[in-house]
Amino acid sequence: MRNQGWRGLVGVALALAAIALPVGAQPYKSEYSLSIVPDAGTPWAKGTQLWVDMVRERTRGRINIRLHPGAALVGGDQTREFTALRQGVIDMAVGSTINWSSAIPEFNVFSLPFLLRGYRSLDALTQGEVGRELFRRVEEQGVVPLAWGENGFRQLSNSRRAIRTPEDMRGLRFRVVGSLLFNDIFTSLGAVPTQLTWNEALRALKSRSIDGQENPITVYNYVRLDTLGQRYVTVWDYVADPILFVVNRQVWDSWSPQDRDIVRDAAIEAARFEITLAREDLLGNGRGTWDDLDARGVKVTRLTPEQRQRFVDATRPVYAKWKSLVGRDLVEKAEAAVRDDGVAVGARK
Ligand code: X2X
C-alpha cells in the first residue's frame, strides 16, 4: 500500500513537471560548471568571472555558474577540455585555441609562426570570415560559440640568456602545449620542446628542469615567472591565442530563449572587457607592464625587424607543412585578411 502511495505521488510530480517544461527540455541545473586554465588575476580569468557574475545577476540566479580554474575538471589536462565540454562533462568554458586545437585542428591557424602582424590582424581573423568559419566548426561539434576573447601575443622567456637569434635558442628546453605544431616550431629553431600542461609547466619551471616557456606577458606577470628564474624575455609576437566563450549544446537548449539572450549578450560584453584588459599593458596596480619588468631586473629583448626576419625564415618550412595540415583554404583566407588589415610589427606598442 505504502509503495503504491509513493508511486502515485511520483506520478503526480512527473505530470506536473511535464506541464511546466516544454517537450524535450531538460530542467535547469542548480549549478553549471565552467572550466578555464589560468588562475584568477589574469585578464582571461577576470573576463570569465565578469561573465559568470553578469549571468547570475541578470537571470536572478536561474543560471548559477561555478568557475573551475586550472582545468581541474579534466585533471589539469587542458588539451582534453574541449572534448569534455562536447561530451557534457563540462557545461561551459572559456578556452584557448591552442588547447582546443587537439579537437579542432583548424584552430592552429592562430599558431602558424609569424602569420599575425599586430592586433588589427588578429581582429581581422576573429571578426572576419576566418572567425565565422571557426565558429561553424565549433558548432558542428555540439558546442555553442558566443564570443571571442584573447589570451594574447605570446612572448618567450627563459632562465639562461637573452635571445636575439635562433642560435641563442640552441639546446634550451622549452615547455610548449597544444598541437605538435609547437614542437615543430621550437625544433626548427634548434631548441628542445617538451609538451606539458600549464600546471606541470609551473612545477618544471620551479624545479628548473626546463629552461623556458612562452606565454602572453599578462600570464608571465600574474604568476611572476621572474621569481622562478625566468629573467630573460624576448618580445617576438610569433603567435597569439584567442579564447572562446562557449556553452555545451544540450545545456544551451535547456535554457529559455530569454536566458540564452542574456548569456550571449553577457559573453559579448565580458569578452570585450577581457580583450581591453589583455591589451592594456598595465599591471593590476596601474604600473606599466614593461617598465615594471625593467624595474624588477628582467632583461627584455625587443627584436629589430632584421632579427625577427631570421626567426621567420627559420620557421618557414614549418609554416608550409602546417598550412596544409590546418587547411589551405582557411590559411589563405587568413593570409588575405592579414594582408588587408595588418599593421607593421611593433606598431601596436
Ligand atoms: O598553458 C598555457 O600556456 C596557457 C595558460 O597560455 C594556455 O592555456 C594556452
UniProtKB/TrEMBL annotation:
GO terms for cellular component: outer membrane-bounded periplasmic space. This is C4-dicarboxylate ABC transporter. GO terms for biological process: transmembrane transport. It comes from the Bacteria. The keyword Signal applies. The keyword NAD does not apply. Keywords: Signal. It comes from Pandoraea morbifera. InterPro entries: DctP_fam, TRAP_DctP, TRAP_DctP_sf. NCBIfam families: TRAP_S1.
